[in-house]
Amino acid sequence: MDVTLFIVYIVAIGYLGITMYLANLEQLNWHENRGGARSLLFVAPGLVALLGLYSVLIATSSSQLNKMNATSPDAALIPEIGTSALVAIILLTVIVPILSVRLIVSRDLRERVKTYFNGTYSPYSIVHTTAIVLALMFFTVNTISFLLEGGTQGMAENIESNGVSSAMTIFQAILWVMAAFLGVGYAIRRELPETLKRLGIRFPTSEDFVWSFLTVIGIFIALSIFGMILTVFVSTDELTEQSRAAESVVNAFSTIPLAILMATSAAVGEEIFFRGAMQPVFGLIPTSIFFAVIHTQVLLTPNIIGIFMVGLAFGWLRQRYSTTTAIFAHFLYNFLIVMINILVTSSGAI
C-alpha cells in the first residue's frame, strides 16, 4: 500500500470513528442538544460528491494516459471506464449526497424511511441517522471503487494478478468489529456485558453447533437449486464469467491455513457488524440486502441473489438464537466453499 492510500485510509477511519463516537455521546446527552455528530455527517455526502468528480476526471483522462503509458513498457495501464459505468457513478454521486442531506435535516423523511425497517430504528436517534448516512456512503464508495476497477472482469483480473492480502483480510475484520462495538456505544452508552448482549454475542452451546451445521446444509441445497434455475436463463459461459471474481477470491485462499484465516475473519467481522449491530435496528431483509450489495465480487450479477439468501439464513439464526450461532454458520459456509475448491483443484491437477 502506497503512502497516499495509507493516509486516505487513516483519515477515513478517523472520520468514521469520530462521527460514531460523537453520535453516541450526543445520544447519551440528548438533553444538552449537542450538534457535533450532525455537523460531521454533512462531510459524508461532500466526500461522495468529490469522489464523483474524481471518477469523471479519471474517466476523461484514462484513454489519454494509457496512450502516453503505452510508449513505456514498464508503465501500468489504467482501466478505462465505460459509458454505462460512468453514468452509474454520476447518478450515485448525485442521488446519494442529496438523499443523505435530506435524511440529516428532515425528520419527516426519516419517519417515512422507518416504514421500510422492522427493527428498533428510531427517526429521532442521531445514532441511527448516523448509521444510515455512513452506510449509504460506504455502499457508494464500495460500488464506485468496483466500477473504477473495471467491474467484475477488472476485479477478477486484479485478484488473479495480485492475490488477496492476508493482513488486509484480518485488518478488515478488525474494522468491522470495532465499528460494531463503537456503533452500539461500547464504553460510551453501554458497558461490556450490555454491549455483548446488544450484539447477540454469548458463549457457544451445543445448540449453536447443531443449528449452524443444519443451516449451512440448507444453504447449500438452496444455492444448488438456485444455480440450476439460473442455467435455464443464463448460458454456462456467461455464468462462468459472472462468477469469475467470486471464484478468484476463493482461489486466493488455496491452503487450509488460509481457508481458516478467511473463514474466521469474515465470519467474526461481518456477523458481529451486520447481524449483531445492524440487524436489530434495521431488520432482517434490509440488513441482508446491504450485506449482499457490499460483496462487490457478485455485484451486478445474478449471484447477488445467492448472497442475499445466505444473508437471510444467517439473519434468521441471529433472530432465533444468537450472533454466535450465525458466526459458526458463516465460518462453516466459507470454510467448506474454500475446501471444496481446494479438493476440486487438487483432483483436477492429478
Annotation keywords:
350 residues, 79% helix, 16 helices, mainly alpha
Question: Uncertain spans, ≥5 residues at pLDDT below 50?
Answer: none
Total strand segments: 0
Largest sheet: none
Series of secondary-structure elements, N-terminal to C-terminal: HHHHHHHHHHHHHHHH
Ends: how far apart? Answer: 37 Å
Helix run count: 16
Query: How much strand content do the residues show?
Result: under 5%
Average pLDDT score: 86
SS class: mainly alpha
Helix content: over 70%
Shape: globular
**Radius of gyration, whole Å:** 21 Å
List the SSEs and their pairings.
Elements (H helix, E strand, L loop, with lengths): L2 H26 L7 H6 L1 H27 L13 H23 L1 H7 L12 H23 L2 H12 L3 H18 L8 H8 L6 H28 L2 H7 L1 H9 L3 H27 L1 H10 L9 H18 L2 H27 L1
Helix pairs in contact: 1-6, 3-4, 3-6, 4-6, 7-12, 8-13, 10-15, 10-16, 13-14, 13-15, 13-16, 14-15, 15-16
